[in-house]
């Protein structure tokens, strides 16, 4: 039995990382056009670096919660029992899944703690804050940006994800509002191919999944995994 799990900002909310569209969410404080598009970065790189430096500092101080830990346990048990394929796709750019013990996390929107050189494509861990003055350690250019996927950019790992989703027998969506594509289309794609679909969310979306369970991730995910 192949399982595909998609997570969003809601799974990291109880670790203290902001969600985007909830009351007081990141997009209500920073318009996404200004801080999560290539155009916004070209217009005001300092603002975008400040936005991601702030989030990077919070992410480094955060700890995985019981939901992240439960998914890591599920993956280990799934692989040990040889129960079939297991894939964890996340829209999140934090590293809490990895720090909870998950392996092979597919970060389709990139990783906050990594940097990308816009000039030579060099990608590596980001040692601290980024700024327009920072120089690429590989080519020396001053074109460093957070290694995240902005709106209008092509998500990472789409080849693999494009194979995994239609092959899923069970598709589980955790802590995502289902507003951002192409991730928002995965559940319907899996269902069309015959998968059972389950949503675990604080505010489940009515009618988009075969089953929906309402609650905080740190409570309902360990219950589901048990
Ligand atoms: C692309 C950057 C082409 C990193 C982000 C149709 C098809 C294809 C594209 C589009 C389309 N329609 C529109 C588009 C364009 C666009 C898009 O989707 N726009 C939206 C606004 C309509 N998409 C793109 O531009 C994408 N690129 O399409 O390229 C392409 C496509 C396919 C193949 C080839 C080429 C790129 C999108 C990536 C944008 N970058 N982030 C960063 O700064 O983090 S998106 C951003 O939103 C984050 O990554 C975030 O993860 C993501 C999704 O948000 P959620 O995770 O769901 O968070 P949200 O706050 O919305 O919801 C939180 C949920 O948690 C809620 O439901 C809440 O109830 C729940 N919750 C809260 N607390 C808890 C909880 N649940 C449980 N427990 C709790 N305690």
UniProtKB/TrEMBL annotation:
<feature type="binding site">
    <location>
        <position position="52"/>
    </location>
    <ligand>
        <name>substrate</name>
    </ligand>
</feature>
<dbReference type="InterPro" id="IPR027546">
    <property type="entry name" value="Sirtuin_class_III"/>
</dbReference>
<feature type="active site" description="Proton acceptor">
    <location>
        <position position="109"/>
    </location>
</feature>
<dbReference type="Pfam" id="PF02146">
    <property type="entry name" value="SIR2"/>
</dbReference>
<feature type="binding site">
    <location>
        <position position="217"/>
    </location>
    <ligand>
        <name>NAD(+)</name>
    </ligand>
</feature>
<dbReference type="InterPro" id="IPR026591">
    <property type="entry name" value="Sirtuin_cat_small_dom_sf"/>
</dbReference>
<dbReference type="InterPro" id="IPR029035">
    <property type="entry name" value="DHS-like_NAD/FAD-binding_dom"/>
</dbReference>
<feature type="binding site">
    <location>
        <position position="55"/>
    </location>
    <ligand>
        <name>substrate</name>
    </ligand>
</feature>
<dbReference type="GO" id="GO:0017136">
    <property type="term" value="F:histone deacetylase activity, NAD-dependent"/>
</dbReference>
<dbReference type="InterPro" id="IPR026590">
    <property type="entry name" value="Ssirtuin_cat_dom"/>
</dbReference>
<dbReference type="GO" id="GO:0005737">
    <property type="term" value="C:cytoplasm"/>
</dbReference>
<dbReference type="InterPro" id="IPR003000">
    <property type="entry name" value="Sirtuin"/>
</dbReference>
<feature type="binding site">
    <location>
        <position position="136"/>
    </location>
    <ligand>
        <name>Zn(2+)</name>
    </ligand>
</feature>
<feature type="binding site">
    <location>
        <position position="117"/>
    </location>
    <ligand>
        <name>Zn(2+)</name>
    </ligand>
</feature>
<feature type="binding site">
    <location>
        <begin position="8"/>
        <end position="27"/>
    </location>
    <ligand>
        <name>NAD(+)</name>
    </ligand>
</feature>
<dbReference type="GO" id="GO:0070403">
    <property type="term" value="F:NAD+ binding"/>
</dbReference>
<dbReference type="GO" id="GO:0008270">
    <property type="term" value="F:zinc ion binding"/>
</dbReference>
<feature type="binding site">
    <location>
        <begin position="201"/>
        <end position="203"/>
    </location>
    <ligand>
        <name>NAD(+)</name>
    </ligand>
</feature>
<keyword id="KW-0520">NAD</keyword>
<keyword id="KW-0862">Zinc</keyword>
<keyword id="KW-0479">Metal-binding</keyword>
<feature type="binding site">
    <location>
        <position position="139"/>
    </location>
    <ligand>
        <name>Zn(2+)</name>
    </ligand>
</feature>
<dbReference type="InterPro" id="IPR050134">
    <property type="entry name" value="NAD-dep_sirtuin_deacylases"/>
</dbReference>
<protein>
    <recommendedName>
        <fullName>NAD-dependent protein deacylase</fullName>
        <ecNumber>2.3.1.286</ecNumber>
    </recommendedName>
</protein>
<comment type="similarity">
    <text>Belongs to the sirtuin family. Class III subfamily.</text>
</comment>
<feature type="binding site">
    <location>
        <begin position="91"/>
        <end position="94"/>
    </location>
    <ligand>
        <name>NAD(+)</name>
    </ligand>
</feature>
<keyword id="KW-0808">Transferase</keyword>
<dbReference type="GO" id="GO:0036055">
    <property type="term" value="F:protein-succinyllysine desuccinylase activity"/>
</dbReference>
<feature type="domain" description="Deacetylase sirtuin-type">
    <location>
        <begin position="1"/>
        <end position="226"/>
    </location>
</feature>
<dbReference type="GO" id="GO:0036054">
    <property type="term" value="F:protein-malonyllysine demalonylase activity"/>
</dbReference>
<keyword id="KW-0963">Cytoplasm</keyword>
<feature type="binding site">
    <location>
        <position position="120"/>
    </location>
    <ligand>
        <name>Zn(2+)</name>
    </ligand>
</feature>
<comment type="function">
    <text>NAD-dependent lysine deacetylase and desuccinylase that specifically removes acetyl and succinyl groups on target proteins. Modulates the activities of several proteins which are inactive in their acylated form.</text>
</comment>
<feature type="binding site">
    <location>
        <begin position="175"/>
        <end position="177"/>
    </location>
    <ligand>
        <name>NAD(+)</name>
    </ligand>
</feature>
């Amino acid at each position: 039995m192949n399982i595909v799990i998609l997570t969003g900002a809601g799974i990291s909310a109880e670790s203290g990382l902001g969600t985007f569209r909830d009351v007081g969410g990141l997009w209500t404080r920073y318009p996404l056009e200004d801080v999560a598009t290539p155009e916004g970065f070209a217009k005001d790189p300092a603002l975008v670096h400040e936005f991601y430096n702030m989030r990077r500092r919070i992410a480094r101080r955060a700890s995985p919660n019981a939901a992240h830990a439960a998914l890591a346990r599920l993956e280990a048990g799934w692989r040990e029992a040889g129960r079939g394929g297991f894939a964890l796709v996340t829209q999140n750019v934090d590293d809490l899944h990895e720090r909870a013990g998950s392996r092979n996390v597919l970060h389709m929107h990139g990783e906050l703690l990594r940097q990308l050189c816009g000039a030579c494509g060099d990608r590596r861990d980001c040692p601290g804050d980024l700024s327009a003055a920072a120089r690429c350690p590989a080519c020396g250019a001053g074109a460093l940006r957070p290694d995240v996927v902005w709106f209008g950019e092509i998500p990472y790992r789409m080849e693999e994800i494009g194979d995994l989703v239609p092959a899923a027998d069970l598709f589980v969506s955790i802590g995502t509002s289902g507003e951002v594509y192409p991730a928002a289309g995965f559940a319907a794609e899996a269902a069309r191919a015959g998968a059972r679909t389950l949503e675990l969310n604080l505010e489940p979306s009515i009618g988009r999944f075969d089953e929906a369970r309402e609650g905080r991730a740190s409570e309902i995910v360990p219950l589901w995994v048990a």
